[in-house]
Each structure stands twice: as structure tokens, then as C-alpha cells.
Amino acid sequence: MGLSSIRKVLVANRGEIAARCIRACSKLGLQSVSIYTPADSTSLHVSLADESVLLKTEGVAGYLDVDNIIEICQAHNVDAVIPGYGFLSENASFAQKVADAGMVFVGPSPESITAMGLKHRARELAIATGVPVVPGTELLESEQIAVEEAEKLGFPVMLKATGGGGGMGLQVCFSAEDVRVKYKSVQSRGETLFKNAGVFLEKYYSKSRHVEVQVFGGADEVVHFGERECSIQRRHQKVIEECPSPFVESKPGMREKLTTCAVNYASALNYKSAGTVEFLVDDETGSFFFLEMNTRLQVEHGITELCYGVDLVELMLLQADGERHGTGGIPIESLRLLVKDGPDGSAIEVRIYAENPSRNFAPSPGILQEVVIPVDGSLRVDTWVKSGQEITSYFDPLIAKVMVHASTRAETIIQMTAALAYKVSFKGPANNLDFVKRIIASSDFGKGNTLTTFLDTFPYRPCAIDVLSAGAFTTVQDVGRPKKGHGIPKSGPMDSISARIANILVGNDQDLDLLEITLDGPELVFNAAAVIAICGAAVPVSVDGKEVPMWSRLRIDAGQKLMIGFLKGPGIRCYLAVKGGFPNIPLVFGSKATTPSLKYGGTQGRQVRAGDYLELSEQSPNWAEKFEAFSLPVELIPDFNIKEVYVMQGPHDSADIMTAEDREMLYNTLWRVGHNSNRTGIKLIGPAPKWARSDGGEAGSHPSNYLDFGYPSPGGMNWGGDASTILAFDSPNFGGLICSSTVVTADLWKLGQLRPDDKVALTPISLESALKQKHVVATYIKSVENTVSGIMINGTVNGTPASNMSTKQLRSDIGDTTAILKSIPSNGTLRPRVVYRQGGDAFILVEFGEQSADIGIVSRIRLLVEKLELEKAPGLLLTPHIGCLTIEYEPEKISQSSLLSLIDGLETSIEANVSIKIPCREIRLPVVLDHPAINECIQRYMDTTRNKAVYLPDNVEYLKKANAMESRRQAFEILTKTEFVVVAVGFLCGAPMLFPLAPKAFLAQKYNPTRVSTPGGTVGVGGSILSLYPIEQPGGYMMLARTLEMFDPFGNKPGFTTERPWVIEPYDLIKFDEVSVEEYDRLDAEYQAGQYEWDVREGVFDVEQAYSLFQAAKKDPDVMAYKDRQLKALNQQAAIEKTLYEEWMAETADDEPVDESHLNDMLRNSITVAAPMAANVWKVEVAVGDTVEAGHLVTILEAMKMEINVYAPTEAKGKKIKAIIKKPGTMVNAGDVLMVFE
């Protein structure tokens, strides 16, 4: 059978059935056209089709817009339209409009659809053709007649909407009162959903099965392909189907009777194409009754294909081709060759839905972080998703249909159980995979006892945690990511000590995943018994309202509710460990840790939310049965009243960057923790450095600006302007701001317990002391392990002395060169100065040259990297950049001195040579000037961060002025007319750093303060280099233009893989092509849909040629004049910026202090509400004079990227607001009065 009149097919559907139809088209050599809404842009049905067209309307309405679909068909020269199931598949008007437009509808005739669309007419046809029907009525004219007819039939009865389908418009009634109550509901639902208010009654059989026969009508005759059983349903929608029906198999002769009735019924309609005749089967007598005919492809058609060796979609296309060609369809001789006497083996299908079984199967939208579908001969999975696909609330939450085919039903059950347990995986939002797995494995299913009421009594209790409320900021964390570089932060618990102990207490590996809870805890219902422990800063903990201790192994039983309250301090984080962890949280870059600022890891790349469903190990109830209570001795609980953090000098507190006074200030100040501290960084408020230099040279106008380098992260004390931040666990791996000092690795856990408004000293210690402190921590953890598993005798556990990390390290002297390990002077043009700097006890920075971008240095760094990689020294992570190589090492594997010696020896051995040709890729990127997203970002910055600066309100205008250019256009053309080489990839999410291969390039300062958000794809300028922001993320470079985003954590889009989720690599050559805003938005839509193909070709980076260009430019009068004008302009803009910065600082200072005497008078005999912690007042939800009730939300604070709700106290019930002391935008400290009640 071949095709003669159809060449192109439009698939008028979405999801798995659309993908299924597209594959059938491909198999037959047909071109396919898919349609999609914005929410479906990343669906497989979009990428699989030869052509894809965006619909005009979002959501279901888009797929029901007949006129839009017909327009698309005509615009794309479509010959046929296949509708799949649902949407327009049984819309006779649509089928007719397709035909009227000169195309063929791949399905039955409009007349057949109309006849079967009305259930009462379908019933009449069954009676006329001698097919048994369920005792019932014609259409009912009134509620009273419905009651009378129901009493004649005998209860229970089923009220049915005549236009209904898919389980909608059905209500079971057990009494006359039920009929009265539900009649109008069914009538209304029929009118709303199906534009038909007709209602009729049928007898309801409580012990029944749902069996259907697959029929197919060709040119002359109707044939069948056996039956399927679809009895297991929830809310009248099928969940599990199988072919053949085990009940029919057990009744000799029944298949012949069923299929004969089905064929006769379809033949009476002169039915064409695929259809299904559905029957209700009485389990007690074996009698069967006609229910309805579905004039379309069924969801579960695949199991028939597996058992009968046919491709029903292919047959539908062949039938439509014959109809269009005028032959009527597939000849009966061809159809009969496909017919079998019975099924070949057994097949079972389960439907995987994104729904929460513990919440009555409520839809559970979200991002599928991991989709695993193995290639397996016995397994078929029809789906539309891949890792990274978002399940939206617009559509039915069907994720996939998992089908297994084997020689016997018993073997099929075994293989399906294995497939659901070990093979397929859909991790992300809650789904029913475990639910259907347990059904398949149940004895009743094995025996074939699968009535339509099966799920009403199926004993399913999820082994999971149901999140009732999530607290202020709760995330999944584990030990963190293995060293990956490229701007992939380590993440993991901010306080690794508390996290490790919580895991030790429950018997987990120390590094297993658990919940990190910040400030205010969650409310969780355990659907299964579990062993838990809560460790960290003190917090009230209760189970079903009864207080339970922290630092203890606890048992929580199925159905119990765990509440973790507000952490009042000291400390701000605690950790909830559950034995077995959370097995359904997927690994992302080798870890389950959440990096919420970058939107990956943990629960769908975000904090835990109310409604989340955290699956536990299936062994959790068994572990709970063997539970033994245990509490950690008080003397082993860490002290969270943190007053000092150990640091080491360097990399940049040396005399060339900071003054002696600065160093004294750094290590003798009690720093105050800022309210906007978070997992990215701990903000420290204190004195500003005096600085030993006036500016950052090529890196920027502020002395804190530095030629970009690899950060000692986490731990580096990073200076942006005169403000400092300690880089935390989600921080960038490089940037262009100096790091004066570095927290030693043994004290990094303390960062996680620093609370806004805490005061903390940075105590300098030596490398030797840092390693001693690491040993102190290791000894302490060992003490905890031994205490939990052993018996303490005379202050020791199995001979190991107990320890609580109370040992103090000696404060070291502050030196002006302590940060510098070694310095080697320049020796000729191609042998630059080399400075080795320490970054705590885990980093060495190798700096080349004099803080000036130099292509010769870039090549020298590359050669050093190659030599180090050949050494294969254990535990090293190399981060090369424009003038520096940062090396992270593990002192347990290689000492600082040994590593220094190794690097120095290798660096010295490099020949002074630039005659190097590096194989690379040439990549052309689209770029647009003045994209609205950039303008909106600048406006947000002005509204929320800083309202005046030399670079506001237009970054391009600033670049024009700072580089002495005549127009904004000229500034943009520097970008489009220059070729760039990528010198580093990192910062966050693989951001490429670009060095211009042209002497006439940009110089620019950086934002001060930096932005909290930058649109993905932004082209930024900082100092003399450019950065491409791969996704939305923080940043400080001037925003010049916008190209496409270039980071895919799931590795699905063209150009990406799971191992390499960034698209650009070091030494790639980049050129930009200008596009309009409209063209950019079109290309961006293609990229987001996974359809954009990068313009990449093979190339060579000739280092010598580039070096010669820059050497010649040093003597070129035109270039020299350009740089002279540029430097003067840059200095002029820097002077303006200095004035504007001082004005802004003065304006934002607390220049309106509260009149203390007036406030004290107001507070006398008044009720107040105070700030629970240092924060910013974001919103005030009441006004003076308002009357409030206890628990009324009065103020929302913002701190640490969290919203903190403040409520009226109990004693304020019925009181009026007397005064609002703190207005939106003001800073408050813990205990500050926010408002006063009468």
C-alpha cells in the first residue's frame, strides 16, 4: 500500500499523540506540520515536525481555533489534517471545514462523527443493529421525568450528558434525591463543555468492566483488531489498559460475540478509518452492553498495535489518501491481510500523569528535570517530553504512556513492574508512576480482578512527604557539585556541619540530600513512617503539636505532621534529614543541590513550595520500625553564636592594592552582616578601604576593579566598589572585582549561620593554622560519628576524645606581602612578570603581566594549562582567564608548597613564543541594539537599587561618552565590526568572556552596586573585555546589546549536551550580525523551542597574527590618538561618577532620624509590632486608622531574597493602627518598632 495524493499533513493536536502522528508521517515519507502554543514551544511534537507554526492563542483555545488552523493549512499547502484524540478529533464541523478547504480529514466522515457525538442517537443505532445496550432512557425532558425513569430502572443509575466523553458529564445516582441534585449539574456541564444540554439515564452496574473493540473501516468493509480492557479508571478516566482483556480471555466465545457486535455497529454507519466501540461488561454474568462509539484514535491504541502487529495511524493516513484519490480508501483485500484470529501475546499500558496521588490526583505542573526512557525491545513509551520540559496548567497533565509487550500476561506484568521500578523515570513534579507501579504489582491486578471500581478500594498510601507550607526559604541540598568549573557553583548546604550531623543521626551517608531551612520552617505531612533529625540553629519543632527535640534521632509515623518554626537566632539555618533522603530528586551536574538563583537542581531548580511532593525511599517504613531513639550530647552541639571567622590574607590585600591602614581595618573591624545576604554572598557592612591605587586601570575606574580572574570561591571577600561580600556557595567562579581575603575551608560552615545584623570579626590565621582547624573539624565530625554509633567511656568514644570545635587558632601577624607567595620579574616582551597569590588554603592565583589585556599572555596561560593537565595532579580545578590562572586544590592531596613548585617549574619551562595556531570554531551570533528587555532592566535598577549614576539611564550613551565616540551607533558598530576571541568561560552558567581582536576597543567602568538581574543574552562591557550573559543572572558589566541565551542545564537544545550545557568554549572566535528587534524575538523563540541552529564553522586562531596586530598598533598614530581621547573621556566620566555616587549615598543615608522622645511618648501604654530581624521594609499592608485582627498581615519585609511576613499580635485584636514608624524602602534592625497600635 502506497500513497498517491497526500504529500503534507498537518497534525491538529499536541503532546504525545501529535508526536505519534508525526512519526507515522515520517515513516510514510510524508511532510508534517505541527501547531503549537507558546507553552508548548519545547514539546517534542514541535521539534519532530518538518514545519512548526505558532498558534494565535495560548492554551486549549489555541488548539480549538478552527479558523486559525485552516489558515495555517492553506498557507503551508497542506493536503490532509490528522486530529489524533481530544480537541477537534470528534468535531464534525471541523472535519467538514477541512474537506471544504480542499483537504482530507484523516478520520471518519462528518456524518459518522455527528451520529456518534450524541449518545442517545448512538444508543438508538445499537438497538437497531441488535447490539445489546445498557437499560436506559431516551433524552429526558425534565428533572421529574428523570426521577420517575430512574425509579423504573432501579438504583443505582448513571446520569449522562449526551454530548459527553472522556469521563466528563457523568454522575452516579443512588437515590431519587441524588437524581434531583445532580440532574441540573449534568445538564449544565453538558451545555458548557459540549454545547448540548441533553441528558439521559442508564442503569449503573457497580461490578462491571470497561471493554472496547478496535475497529477500522476501509473502502468497502469494516474489520476489527481485537479488544482492550480499560476498567481501571479514576474520575471516569482510564489509567491502565491492557490487550487482550483478561476477562474476555477467560470466557470462551466472548471475543467473537463482542467483535461481531462492534463490526456490525460500525458497518451500519458505513464507518471509515479507526474507531472504537465501547462496552460495559457485567462481571457477574458476563453480559455486555453497548456504551458508545469513539470516532477517533484512542489514547490506548498502542497496545492493540503491539498485539496485532498493525500501525493504526499509518492505516488512517492510507485510508485518507485513498479517499482523497477517489478510491474510497484501503481495499478490503489489503485490510483482511492484517486481520488476525487473536492477539499475539499480551500488552499493558499505564498512563503517567503529572498529578499528586496524595491530593486526590490534583494536577501537578512543573519542570521535568530528568526524563529517562531506555531503548528496550519489549518497552514502548509514547511521550512528548524530554528533560527540561515544563508541564503547564493549560492542558491535561499526561506525561507519557508506558507500554510493555510480552508473550504472556504474567510476563508482561513482570516486565512492566521492572520498567516502572528501574527503567523509565520522570523526575520533577509529582506524578503517579509509583501509584500505577503498585497497582501492576498488586495481587488483584495479577488475578485480573480489575473492575471499574478497582481504585475505590485500592489501598495506596504514598511513601512521600506532602508539603503543606514551605517556610521562608527551604531547599534541597546535598554535599554539593563535584568540581566542574565553567561557572557551575558548588552549591550544597551553607552550614555543612549541621547538615552532616543530621545525616549521621538518621544513619545516612554524610553527603546525602536533605532540606536546608532558612529563617522560618515548613509544615510537612509524612504519608509514610520515617526516621528524621533536625540540626542547626535553635528552632521550635513539633510533631502533631507536641514539641520534639533537635539534634536527635526521631520517628515520625504515617499521617503525622511535622512543624518547624521560626529561627530566632543565634544562627539562621537548620537542616531536616530523612533516612534514605529523597530518591526522586534528580542529579543535576552530579548533585541534587539546589542553586535557586540559577534555576537548577533540587525541586525543579527552585525552593520547596506548598503542594510539593517529596518521595521517600520505599524502605522508609521498614527503617522506622527498627527505629532507636538517640540524642546528641549537649557538649557536642556547635555554638552558633558566631563572633569570628578565620580567614587567610590574600589574594589581594597586598601593598600594591590595599594600604596598611586597610589591612588593619579588615582584620580589626566588627563587620555587620547585611540584610541582603543570601546563598550567593554574605554582605558585610563596615568601613571602606582607602586603597593603595587610584583606579583599576584597564579593568575599570574604581580601585576595586581588577582584570578578570578566577575567584577563590566560596570564601573570597569580594569588593564591589567600597562594599564587600564574602562569596558563598552559589557564587560566580570568576569576575573583575578584587578579593582581599579568603575564609579558610574549615570555617566556611559559619557563613551559613551568619544572620543579618550579626557582628563578626575576620581573624587572620596562617596556612598551618588553617590546616589545623581543618583537622579540628574532622575530629569533631568523627566524635559525632562515634558517639552516634558507639558508647562513650571516660570522655572518649572508642578511644577518640570528644570534641566540639572549641579549639582556638592563633591569630597571625598582618603582613603587606603575606598574600604573595612568589613574584618573578619580567624578562623580555614575551616573558611577563608572574605573581603567585594565595587564596585561603585551597586556591593559588597565577597572575601574568601588569593588569593589561595582552594576547601574548592569553597564549602563555593556555600553554601552562596544557602542561598542568598533562601532569594529572590529583584534585585540581583550573580556571584560566585573560591574565590569570586560578588553581583550586585539595591540601590533603597536594600541599600549597608542592603545588607552587610544580606550577613555577612548568611556567618557567614555557618558551617565549607566540608562533601558535590554535584550532577553534568561528561562531556568528545575532545581536540587537536597544532591546526592550535591557531598557526594562535599567529601569528596574533605577527603581530598586540606584537612581543616579554616570551610566544611567542609558548604558550605550555612557559607552559613547566614555570612549569619546560621536554617536550611540558608533559604539554599537565597534561590536559588529570587531572579531573577538573567547579568553574564558565561567562566571555563572558558562558565560563567555570576549577579548577584542582590534586595537580600537571599549573601556568601561562597572555597575556600582552591581545588578541583581541581567537579561539572558545581554552583551556586557567591563573594563576592556566583553561578557555574554548566558541566562538571566546578576551582573555589573555595561549592557551594550543583546544576543541569544546560551546555557541549557538539560543539554537538549542544538549545540548543548548534559556534560557541556554551555555552547561557547575558550579560543572560539566570535562575530556579531545585527538584527532588528522583531528578527531577534523570532530567533529567540526558535532558541527557546530548541529549533535554533548555531552558525558554527571550523577555524584557526592565529596568535602570532593577533600579537603582531597589537604590537603594530602601539606605533600607529591613529590608534594612539584614539586611546588618548578614550582615556581622557573615561577619566571625565569617572569624575562625574564620583560626584553622582556621593550624592546618591547622601540621599540614601538615614537623614530623617526618628524623634526618640516623641517615639517614647507614643510607645507608652501602646501595643507594638517589631521587626524579627534586620531587613528592608518592602510593603506595608495597612494604613493609619485601620482596625486589625490578631494575625492580620501588616508588613512584609525583604531580606536574603526572602519575603518575611509580619503579623499583628494577639493583643492587637480590634485595635486601630496609631502610627507606622517604618515606611517602605527603609532599613530596619531586629527589634525595631515597625508600627504602633492604640
From TrEMBL:
<feature type="domain" description="ATP-grasp">
    <location>
        <begin position="123"/>
        <end position="321"/>
    </location>
</feature>
<dbReference type="InterPro" id="IPR000089">
    <property type="entry name" value="Biotin_lipoyl"/>
</dbReference>
<dbReference type="Pfam" id="PF02626">
    <property type="entry name" value="CT_A_B"/>
</dbReference>
<dbReference type="Pfam" id="PF00289">
    <property type="entry name" value="Biotin_carb_N"/>
</dbReference>
<feature type="domain" description="Lipoyl-binding">
    <location>
        <begin position="1166"/>
        <end position="1238"/>
    </location>
</feature>
<dbReference type="Pfam" id="PF02785">
    <property type="entry name" value="Biotin_carb_C"/>
</dbReference>
<dbReference type="InterPro" id="IPR050856">
    <property type="entry name" value="Biotin_carboxylase_complex"/>
</dbReference>
<dbReference type="InterPro" id="IPR011054">
    <property type="entry name" value="Rudment_hybrid_motif"/>
</dbReference>
<dbReference type="GO" id="GO:0046872">
    <property type="term" value="F:metal ion binding"/>
</dbReference>
<dbReference type="Pfam" id="PF02682">
    <property type="entry name" value="CT_C_D"/>
</dbReference>
<dbReference type="InterPro" id="IPR005482">
    <property type="entry name" value="Biotin_COase_C"/>
</dbReference>
<dbReference type="InterPro" id="IPR003833">
    <property type="entry name" value="CT_C_D"/>
</dbReference>
<dbReference type="Pfam" id="PF00364">
    <property type="entry name" value="Biotin_lipoyl"/>
</dbReference>
<dbReference type="InterPro" id="IPR003778">
    <property type="entry name" value="CT_A_B"/>
</dbReference>
<keyword id="KW-0436">Ligase</keyword>
<dbReference type="InterPro" id="IPR029000">
    <property type="entry name" value="Cyclophilin-like_dom_sf"/>
</dbReference>
<feature type="domain" description="Biotin carboxylation">
    <location>
        <begin position="5"/>
        <end position="460"/>
    </location>
</feature>
<protein>
    <submittedName>
        <fullName>Urea carboxylase</fullName>
    </submittedName>
</protein>
<dbReference type="GO" id="GO:0016874">
    <property type="term" value="F:ligase activity"/>
</dbReference>
<keyword id="KW-0378">Hydrolase</keyword>
<dbReference type="InterPro" id="IPR011053">
    <property type="entry name" value="Single_hybrid_motif"/>
</dbReference>
<dbReference type="GO" id="GO:0005524">
    <property type="term" value="F:ATP binding"/>
</dbReference>
<dbReference type="InterPro" id="IPR011761">
    <property type="entry name" value="ATP-grasp"/>
</dbReference>
<keyword id="KW-0092">Biotin</keyword>
<dbReference type="GO" id="GO:0016787">
    <property type="term" value="F:hydrolase activity"/>
</dbReference>
<dbReference type="Pfam" id="PF02786">
    <property type="entry name" value="CPSase_L_D2"/>
</dbReference>
<dbReference type="InterPro" id="IPR005481">
    <property type="entry name" value="BC-like_N"/>
</dbReference>
<dbReference type="InterPro" id="IPR005479">
    <property type="entry name" value="CPAse_ATP-bd"/>
</dbReference>
<dbReference type="InterPro" id="IPR016185">
    <property type="entry name" value="PreATP-grasp_dom_sf"/>
</dbReference>
<keyword id="KW-0547">Nucleotide-binding</keyword>
<dbReference type="InterPro" id="IPR011764">
    <property type="entry name" value="Biotin_carboxylation_dom"/>
</dbReference>
<keyword id="KW-0067">ATP-binding</keyword>
